[in-house]
Amino acid sequence: xxxxxxxxxxxxxxxxxxxxxxxxxxxxxxxxxxxxxxxxxxxxxxxxxxxxxxxxxxxxxxxxxxxxxxxxxxxxxxxxxxxxxxxxxxxxxxxxxxxxxxxxxxxxxxxxxxxxxxxxxxxxxxxxxxxxxxxxxxxxxxxxxxxxxxxxxxxxxxxxxxxxxxxxxxxxxxxxxxxxxxxxxxxxxxxxxxxxxxxxxxxxxxxxxxxxxxxxxxxxxxxxxxxxxxxxxxxxxxxxxxxxxxxxxxxxxxxxxxxxxxxxxxxxxxxxxxxxxxxxxxxxxxxxxxxxxxxxxxxxxxxxxxxxxxxxxxxxxxxxxxxxxxxxxxxxxxxxxxxxxxxxxxxxxxxxxxxxxxxxxxxxxxxxxxxxxxxxxxxxxxxxxxxxxxxxxxxxxxxxxxxxxxxxxx
Length: 410
Prior knowledge:
The chain is an all-alpha fold. It is built from 21 helices and no strands.
């Protein structure tokens, strides 16, 4: 029996050589950022919209490459926030990767081991509470952050946490195998904390005797980024080309494409970042790409928003259904919400694929997720590989939006 969805899906994925041919600049840039090309990439390409979504969110939420060349303190704090939000969410895979990311951006190992200034402590506290389910951040937590950080630092910290909302959910639910390069980079350090590799490795992990030294950003780093940047920009431009620029135009486009305009996107200050979110919402809620069905996505969104305690997101799912002429009566809504919050059976009138998706969402929405062997067998038997990847991507997008909505106004 396979132990994780990653182990099940990786045999259904295209060969890595296909990704190299299509996306090599993107793969190389991630390698520069964290010292490895993540194992999740080939699984994402089973449903190509997933890989595209991932590669739009990462550079734009991290404001790359500008943040890499910019203020050292900003990128150091961003890395610290990404690391602690991942640890708080219980994603051991992302905790390892963000530790490597933070160290490469200039964070000292002593901070990972618990030594922190008052400024770092404010970032850590805010990051960890933002990533809890339900979100536990308070106005006082944000005020403490503002006491120590300027507006640019707060934006970098906040967008890093939003990004990890997507990545934490994706990698934890999938149970991605941790790469040897990541183990070599951070295992010795992280094993001095409460971190364990958990489901992200089969058995014990071991650091290679010939491991490479982790390098902090330097002139060579910047040269490598500059070399890959044109190819990455070309791919991104292709993916964004159909989405208009301008606040009003983007809002109208989103409403036309999916029938609804997510008001929370007004929190995004950079126009290109908002354009990115508009693009991924249109791509991920499209009749032309869906394998699991738009109704299933709305229903799963209702379950997810109930479990994470986000009333805004729940209302957005209801509006999304209404604006797409989906039958979702008050009684149906009550049944779905009862299933989400109590030990109630999934509504009987749904199609079998929708029932399986709801069962999966209920276990996947917590942080960390609880994907047991019984659920694994159910989803593998009833949903096609591309539908599974699509559903994980959708839940990951919703978690990113959940964190964005919970952010205090910057």
